[in-house]
Design a protein that fits this description.
Shape: elongated
CATH class of the largest domain: Alpha Beta
Number of strands: 20
Length: 403
């Protein structure tokens, strides 16, 4: 099954095409639960979706082939719904090695097979693009590369009686992770040449063919989910992995005919109105731009084009709710909103508390996380000449690092 979504344009100068295989055909008997672990929920998304999104986040990856159990087609479709990228699925085999082989053969059947391939376990959801980048960079000088972490704990080997038989030197020992990267022709040839032998991972298989595999730095967050307790560890990690974001917004509207202005969601009687496609609430517009800026998601005009009839005369509270909703969709939090209005008239002071309360209501924030200030431009510029009102805004957010 091929699911085509937003395509990426290959730059021929960027190097060989890169595809990825996400292995998700196992049953996960040690995990328990109501279904396969790759469809278990982690912070609102399945492990499979986390893994596919993480792979697609690297700009070099053009195609992801998910190897799934034949019984999981519906669960797979639900897990990847709405993803932006080129995602396919093929049925898995009786073993992990056989499943990877199925994925490789699917890629080999393309009109233009990739030059490089990443092979990743769906049960390692917290993959950063930087790890993918290190693996791909290593393929410039080696036919294979894997991320790994040096063993730091003392290792013991037990005897048949359950007691320590010896201490194993840890010098030179590494914990292998995924995605493991390979030159496509080499790993495909290795799988075809040794189909009857079982190997611990794809790097082991390539080495059996006499090829070298490089080690690059992995990441402690690339924990493989094997049991339900592993999922709890990842949830704890995600809860603590957050970063602050700050966005700045600016907007201006000219005065026009009317008997009131709407500022900060509050209707204020005035001898003029503000000209604009919506209700021209310059304060809420600036706050929206500040939030979109912190999210790196464009500006208010991108989300609500001013030429669309649907927004003619619209209450700008709709826009602010959307901006705050985008934060929530990314499992973030709005920490603080700060709005400054610049005008000679109307006077903002008598309406400041009402504006704070209205903004807090729209954004679902405590009142002490909303600031509204006002100033004049000392009779300078268009605001000094009372030709319009300007607004500056700052939004402070907290977002998950692995979002």
């Amino acid at each position: 099954m091929r699911r085509r979504m937003a395509k990426r344009t290959l730059n021929p100068a960027a190097g060989p095409r890169t595809a990825a295989i996400v292995v998700a055909a196992g049953r996960g008997s040690r995990f328990g639960g109501d279904g396969p672990k790759q469809y278990a929920n982690l912070a609102g998304r399945t492990l499979l979706r986390w893994s596919v999104e993480a792979i697609l986040a690297h700009p070099a990856v053009e195609l992801v082939c998910c190897v799934i159990h034949p019984d999981d087609q519906a669960a797979f479709e639900e897990a990847i719904a709405g993803l932006q990228g080129d995602v396919t699925s093929v049925p898995g085999g009786a073993t992990r090695q056989a499943s990877v082989r199925n994925g490789l053969e699917s890629l080999a059947a393309l009109p233009a097979p990739p030059g490089r391939v990443l092979i990743h376990d769906a049960a390692r959801p917290l993959l950063l693009p930087s790890v993918v980048g290190r693996v791909l960079a290593a393929l410039e000088t080696a036919p294979g590369a894997i991320p790994a972490m040096a063993v730091v704990d003392t290792l013991k080997r037990s005897g048949p009686d359950g007691r320590i038989a010896e201490t194993v030197p840890r010098v030179g020992l590494w914990r292998a992770q995924t995605p493991q990267g390979f030159r496509f022709a080499d790993i495909l040839a290795a799988h075809r040449a040794l189909p009857q032998q079982e190997f611990t991972d794809d790097a082991d298989l390539l080495q059996a063919m006499g090829q070298q595999v490089a080690l690059v730095e992995g990441d402690e967050a690339l924990l493989k989910v094997t049991t339900a307790s592993d999922l709890v560890r990842l949830e704890t990690l995600l809860a603590g992995a957050r970063e602050p974001r700050t966005g700045f917004g600016y907007d201006v509207h000219a005065f026009g005919p009317g008997d009131h202005v709407t500022l900060g969601g509050v209707r204020i009687p005035h001898g003029k109105g503000l000209a604009g496609h919506s209700d021209a609430d310059v304060g809420l517009h600036a706050l929206c731009d500040a939030i979109y800026g912190a999210l790196a998601e464009g500006d208010i005009g991108h989300h609500f084009p001013p030429g669309e009839a649907a927004w003619r005369g619209a209450d700008s509270a709709l826009f602010l709710r959307h901006a705050v909703g985008r934060v929530a969709e990314r499992r973030g939090t709005v920490l603080h909103l700060d709005l400054t209005l610049v005008c000679e008239r109307p006077k903002i002071g008598p309406h400041r508390d009402a504006m704070r309360a209205r903004i807090a209501e729209i954004a679902v924030l405590p009142l002490d996380r909303v600031a509204v200030k006002a100033t004049t431009s000392e009779r300078l510029g268009f605001t000094g000449r009372e030709e319009g009102i300007a607004a500056h805004a700052v939004a402070t957010l907290s977002l998950p690092v692995l979002s």
